[in-house]
Amino acid sequence: MGYIIGVDSETRTWVSTRRVVTNVDATPVTPVIADNNTEYPAGAYFMKTIEGNGFIRGNVVQGGPEINFSENTAPIEDYFIAGGFVDPYPEDMVGNTVQTSTSAFVLIIDAFDTGQAAGLDGTSPVTDFEWFENVS
Amino acid sequence: MSIQPGVGYTFTASSQGSNLTIEKPWSPWTTYATTEDLYHPFKIVNVQIATSGGSQVVRYQVQSGTINNLVAALEDVTATNLVLLNRTNPTTGQPDPPTGQIDSAIYDGTNTAYIVMSQGPAIGTPPDYPDPTFSPTSSRYPQIIALDTIPADVDARGYLCLGTITVDDVTTPTTFSVNQFVTGSLWSDRIKLGTTTAKYYYARI
């Protein structure tokens, strides 16, 4: 028997097309995962689109999109990396502003590949990621 | 042999001979709203006006269909609770397939009743959606009922309008029309973001 859309937890098309962004450095919260039912708790750990229904398209192979802001101790260079973005395209997001509690920086294309240097005074987690906001 | 006048044809006779002219195909024998359509899951069928308790009501049936591989249920007028659309062994005296009834109170100002299917996540863990456990009084197992409006989705259940039945008069209907919106079995997902109301997504399979 083949898979009907929505059945398999890893490859189901519908979930891959309705993703939220995981803010990896925020305090984790546990989503509710059941058959054909997902609930993302409010908090900083998940971010939704400000416009539209809150979801973006994900990458079936890589999983959901996520952002990761690494603060080195002692700071040598902070790095911001965003992975798994399919739509919106990374190219379209270049120039957007990322805000942390103490700093802000503008996305360059490296953020979606090797990682982007993001200054020396960053404090995780990201508090504002343009086009996205915390699930509330 | 004699041919009587009828709908859709005319018969004429003269000294030159006899003529039978058929102007259009036969009208449906039954009161099906759209018998020309092929039957399909969730098709509203056998709509009829009946008398119940001294009042005229509209009764309807729905072709068996599934959502997430679950056969939906219908609020049956005789059983007065939920009955699966594919029931095979009805209790004596019960209609087969299950039959819904629309009282005049259901019709709103537009004389329209909405045939709505609702389903919600199971209570408890895991909260599978839709609730896979059927019982005659289940509140979240997929079920079909006639309502005067299409309710807004809530966390406990989503609502999908299968079609409408519109009558010419609320208290003494004599004719009706059916609009069918859903034409096949469905697959559905439920996703909830934070405190916002859960969103329900459907696709026909």
Helix and strand arrangement:
The complex is a heterodimer of chains A (136) and B (205).
Chain A: H1 13-16, E1 21-23, E2 32-34, E3 37-40, E4 43-49, E5 66-70, E6 79-83, H2 90-93, E7 97-100, E8 104-106, E9 116-117, E10 126-129, E11 132-135
Parallel strand pairs in A: 1-5
Antiparallel strand pairs in A: 1-4, 2-3, 4-11, 5-6, 6-9, 7-8, 7-10
Chain B: E1 9-14, E2 17-22, E3 44-52, E4 55-62, E5 66-67, E6 70-71, E7 73-75, E8 82-84, E9 100-102, E10 112-119, E11 143-147, E12 158-167, E13 176-180, E14 186-193, E15 199-204
Parallel strand pairs in B: 7-11
Antiparallel strand pairs in B: 1-2, 3-4, 4-9, 5-6, 7-8, 10-11, 10-12, 12-13, 14-15
Report on the architecture of this protein.
- The complex is a heterodimer of chains A (136) and B (205).
- Chain A has two helices and eleven strands.
- Chain A has helices spanning 13-16, 90-93; strands spanning 21-23, 32-34, 37-40, 43-49, 66-70, 79-83, 97-100, 104-106, 116-117, 126-129, 132-135.
- In chain A, the strands form three sheets. A six-stranded mixed sheet of chain A has the order 9-6-5-1-4-11, with no helix packed on it. Chain A has a three-stranded antiparallel sheet with strand order 8-7-10, with no helix packed on it.
- In chain A, 6% of the residues lie in helices and 32% in strands.
- Chain A is mainly beta and 136 residues long.
- With 205 residues, chain B is mainly beta.
- In chain B, the strands form five sheets. In chain B, strands 8-7-11-10-12-13 form a six-stranded mixed sheet, with no helix packed on it. Chain B has a three-stranded antiparallel sheet with strand order 3-4-9, with no helix packed on it.
- In chain B, a hairpin with a 2-residue loop joins strand 5 (66-67) and strand 6 (70-71).
- Chain B starts with 8 loop residues before the first strand and ends with a strand.
- Residues 26-35 of chain B have low confidence and may be disordered.
- Chain A binds chain B through residues 4-6, 14-15, 18, 20, 32-43, 46, 48, 53-55, 135-136, and chain B through 68-69, 121-122, 125-130, 132, 187-196, 198-199, 201, 203, 205.
